[in-house]
DNA sequence: TAACCTACCAAACACTTGTTAGGGAAGGAG
DNA sequence: CTCCTTCCCTAACAAGTGTTTGGTAGGTTA
């Protein structure tokens, strides 16, 4: 294993992520990854010291980038509705960029979480939950979101609707990430039922808690 | 392997489903299943002829029951909105009853679909998609659902939001399946954004295509 | 030229995997 | 009692698993 020459590492990680996402982590053999990369299984161990560390590197790379964008949104001081819109849009952009990593995270994180090595998945999920819950509660208090819904249920609802998209989304499809985000947000916020009369909606909260 | 005495089979399938759901199918060893059942690995092969056939039986059992309920709903001649509501409610009831099987289906069906043995997963998914798409289009034509949304995107949206609930739902929690279905439907249909003024909504479509 | 580094191969290692074969204990049926 | 069925155990098998070790072709540096 070597630390320099990060380009080849990156290539191999990309193909590994692709195979992991398609077959599942446990069902993927290192020989299968090596095949996809055009080398032999043992050669992978020149670059990485275990199959698990490949997975680790894929997930941390994804989460680091995601949190970079999330933190920027959360620090921007937007209103609740705008924060949700920005978070969802960033999420779909992340699915567009790191589809394989997102699919792996979606599929394996629940089991990996129990291993100490992947404890950061738990931390990330809790930060994630706090950020969303706080935003939703802020929106309820400001009168932007409905108060008659279980906030935690709403959180899971919004979170899941966003991330499961990684299971069917294919980059280069007919809809851009931004367009998908727009339609998803429209469904989540306004609902799929038709309004009897089109209604004005102000983006500024009616009341504001300081 | 024996065909009679279906009670023990059923017990073993239930524990197998639980382990499959928790660890993933490929990551689950037959020894792990046997441990959970309190017997040894080889003894499982008195009841079943392979690990794969256990999975098969779990999934077909789940799908058969699900389609029994779905067909009843689809044959009831309900309006589009009521059909969606009934389908979603039945889905959450199914998650309540067969949580493990649903979780397995959710996690493994995409990979299993490619094997000929599990081709029925494809058929089921296509029936599923047709039923939902038809109902949504019927609703759009009747003026019950919004016409400005991509119907296929809406379908995936509704489908995913329902079934991913299997990944966090635990029977005996504080919300009943019906209550979760009610809140989910409220979010999907009306949206999480607050209406500026509460609006009357008639359950009967404004216009009706015969 | 000589020494060195990078990226790989070839071959094996210890271990786990799903599965099978043969046997045996318990209990009901005749 | 004997026979038979049910349900499980013991012990092993072959194939596949992640990983290691030693070697080597080709380029770069001195």
Automatic annotation (TrEMBL), chains A, B:
InterPro entries: Homeodomain-like_sf, HTH-type_TetR-like_transc_reg, HTH_TetR, KstR2_TetR_C, Tet_transcr_reg_TetR-rel_C_sf. Keywords: DNA-binding, Repressor, Transcription, Transcription regulation. The keyword Ribosomal protein does not apply. Residues 6-66 form the HTH tetR-type domain. It holds the Pfam family TetR_C_24. Residues 29-48 bind DNA. GO terms for molecular function: DNA-binding transcription factor activity; transcription cis-regulatory region binding. This is Putative transcriptional regulator TetR family protein.
């Amino acid at each position: 294993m070597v630390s320099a020459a990060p380009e080849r590492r990156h290539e191999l990680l990309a193909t590994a992520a692709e195979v992991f996402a398609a077959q599942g982590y446990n069902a993927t053999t290192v020989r299968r990854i090596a095949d996809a990369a055009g080398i032999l299984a043992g050669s992978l161990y020149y670059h990485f010291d275990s199959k698990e560390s490949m997975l680790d590197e894929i997930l941390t790379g994804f989460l680091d980038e995601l949190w970079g964008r999330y933190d920027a949104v959360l620090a921007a001081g937007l209103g609740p509705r705008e924060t949700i819109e920005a978070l969802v849009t960033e999420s779909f952009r992340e699915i567009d960029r790191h589809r394989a990593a997102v699919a792996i995270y979606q599929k394996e994180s629940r089991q990996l979480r129990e291993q100490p090595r992947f404890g950061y998945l738990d931390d990330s999920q809790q930060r994630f939950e706090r950020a969303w819950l706080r935003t939703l509660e802020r929106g309820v208090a400001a009168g932007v979101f409905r108060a008659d819904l279980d906030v935690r249920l709403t959180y899971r609802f919004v979170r899941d609707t966003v991330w499961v998209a990684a299971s069917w989304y294919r980059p280069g499809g007919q809809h851009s990430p931004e367009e998908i985000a727009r339609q998803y947000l429209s469904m989540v916020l306004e609902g799929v039922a038709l309004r009897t009369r089109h209604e004005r909606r102000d983006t500024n909260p009616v009341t504001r808690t300081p």
